[in-house]
Amino acid sequence: AEHKYEHIQLTTPRPGVALITLNRPKALNALFSPLINELNTCTSSLDRDTSISAIVLTGSPKAFAAGADIKEMAPKTFSDAYGHDFIESWSNITRIKKPVIGAVNGYALGGGCELAMMCDILYASKTATFGQPEIKLGILPGAGGTQRLAHAVGKAKAMHLILTGDNFSGEQAEQWGLVAKCFDDAEACVNGALDTAEKIAGYSKIAVKACKEAVNKSQDLGVREGVEYERRLFHGLFGSQDQKIGMEAFANKKKAEWTHS
Ligand code: HXC
């Protein structure tokens, strides 16, 4: 489906790969409701689009996103926030079944850092500045930051970062395991994310979906339940055509030609 977006750009730079670029340069991609609404419309339509297998999410070289829009948030009352479940729809991107690869360059602060951490694979460059500076505004990270940062880097570091509001670099994020890979510059980071997305787009869609679902379960379940969940998905894939195609191709020393479903 064709959509006209104002605060994001959507392109298809590689076969099967959609690239979403946050595009609100005047405010360093500060996240406000119109942008989040477009992002949600875009990601849910890409999830239904059978020509797309993987999604890359990036910002500009200067900013992935400098946080929630402070000017939009400032006047909110408790009943505005609670009554409209402020921030709840910001995590819609985590409901997408296709893999989302985040490519972070420049600032990823507050809600920007939280949005990055919602991605399935996260890449950054040496230009990246991450941080959860909410403490400096008299609030706390409200879009999953306290939970996802603690899961990714451990409680000690997460507590330190969230209580001090100190920034951290793309290289630190890689060392601590928040980021899968840190590139030298912004261009290499986006290209690296597109390369990975293209590679994933070359695999069986149903197998990719199951892999993502199972790994994400590891964040919510204990190991025993998680392994059982994994095994059910594993059994289920023996009912797919792609399992037969993949294994027969191996036996015949041929390249697998996956179904398009
Ligand atoms: C609204 C923002 C913004 C933000 C930047 N801008 N960040 N507007 N909300 N989060 C705007 C500035 O007001 C300015 O607009 C323009 O973008 C350029 O920013 P500058 O500050 O002039 O740029 P620079 O000097 O390069 O400094 C960059 C910066 C700084 C260090 C990133 O902008 C900054 O500290 N921003 C706020 C970061 C932050 O606290 N984020 C967390 C927000 S709280 P004008 O009109 O003046 O040109 C949050 C809560 C999440 O995210 C909880 C649930 C989601």
From TrEMBL:
PROSITE patterns: ENOYL_COA_HYDRATASE. This is Probable enoyl-CoA hydratase, mitochondrial. Keywords: Fatty acid metabolism, Lipid metabolism, Lyase, Virulence. The lineage of its organism: Eukaryota, Fungi, Dikarya, Ascomycota, Pezizomycotina. Pfam families: ECH_1. GO terms for biological process: fatty acid beta-oxidation. Its EC number is 4.2.1.17. The keyword Translocase does not apply. One of its GO terms (cellular component) is mitochondrion. The keyword Lipid metabolism applies. InterPro entries: ClpP/crotonase-like_dom_sf, Enoyl-CoA_hyd/isom_CS, Enoyl-CoA_hydra/iso, Enoyl-CoA_hydra_C. SUPFAM superfamilies: ClpP/crotonase (SSF52096). It comes from the Eukaryota. Belongs to the enoyl-CoA hydratase/isomerase family. It comes from Aureobasidium subglaciale (strain EXF-2481). CDD domains: crotonase-like. GO terms for molecular function: enoyl-CoA hydratase activity.
